[in-house]
Amino acid sequence: MAAEHSVGFEPADRLAEDRESVRRRFWRKLKRVAAQLPFAEDLLAAYYCAFDLQTPRHVQAALLGAIAYFILPFDFVADVMPVLGFADDAAVLATAIRMVSGHITNEHREAARAVLKRGVGEEGDADVEAA
Length: 131
Fold this sequence. Notes:
- With 131 residues, the protein is mostly helical.
- It contains six helices and no strands.
- Helix 3 packs across helix 4 and helix 3 packs across helix 6.
- The radius of gyration is 14 Å and the shape is globular.
């Protein structure tokens, strides 16, 4: 039954199981596309929540799945398409955030704003601990 609701998301599900790979690939892609993302702050807040050890496992799993979908090299709408390129990524992320919004704290959001203010550096440079 669990497989029925995730049809088409199997690659994201597999990737989400490898947290270190998600971390590395997340920062690499974010650095490349941050300026094009109107939802960059929400994406970063979700990232910090997903890797916060105080976040419940089911919340981490939902957010890691959405983040994994963002970093996949292929998706339903190609990221290189002007305007629409990140629409599917935004929809997946918005759905995950809506499901777990009570777990994304002010500290996660503040950490996200700090990274965006400072600018996304080399892989891992911006990967600071959320408060």
